[in-house]
Amino acid sequence: MLTNFLKISAAVMVLASPVLAQDVPAAIKAREGLMQINALNAGVLFGMAQGKRDYDADAAKAAASNIVLLASINQMNLWPEGTDAEALPGQTRALPAIWKDYPDIEEKSKAWLAAAQAAEAAAGNGLEALQAAIPALGASCKGCHDAYRGPGS
Ligand code: HEC
Questions:
Q1: Positive or negative CA dihedral for 96, 31, 153, 151?
Q2: In 3D, which of 112, 115, 39, 32 has the Cα closest to residue 79?
């Protein structure tokens, strides 16, 4: 039984290796991970603002503070040149314009941070205050995605 298992495992590993050979660069995985944490927290805020989730001051503050932290980190190592969707089709949605238009993406990033800070300040002050801060936060995501994120693969 064990020998069979080992044989099967070895076969699976051989089959899997061509996929591993075109490994997605770590920087792409990391920035997509950053965006996923961002989206998870933004989803909490959007959900409350839209009445799909009960308003909870502490949860709203925690989510907004997390987005402030995410928007504050230095992203230099997340966007190495040559990791755009033309160079690595199917591995990323990052458009080459990110590097061509640089530093415009920094402006989009600043808008995201400013909107997150406003959401953080409002989050604990009741549902209406949170709702008032949400459009700017959503617009900051969309503003950058419209300019710099291509279609999914
Ligand atoms: C400064 C630009 C910028 C801002 C601001 C921004 N994004 Fe993104 N986002 C991107 C780019 C570029 C990608 C594509 C990354 C890639 O595929 O390598 C992306 C990808 C994503 C993804 C897909 C991640 C994956 O697993 O492929 C999600 C989800 C996402 N963003 C959510 C958000 C949300 C929610 C906000 C706002 C709260 C936001 N983003 C703000 C640029 C931005």
A1: negative
A2: 32
Q: Ligand 1 center to residue 44 CA distance, Å?
A: 16
- Report the C-alpha gap between 32 and 143 in whole angstroms: 17
Q: Which atom of ligand 1 is nearest to the CA of 83?
A: 18
Q: Would you say 148 and 108 are in contact if contact means Cβ atoms under 8 Å apart?
A: yes
71-117: pLDDT as tens digits:
999 999 999 999 999 999 999 999 999 999 999 999 999 999 999 99
| Segment 125-138, tens digit of pLDDT | 999 999 999 999 99
Pocket mutation for ligand 1, best pick of 24, 74, 109, 145 (most atoms within 8 Å of C-beta): 145
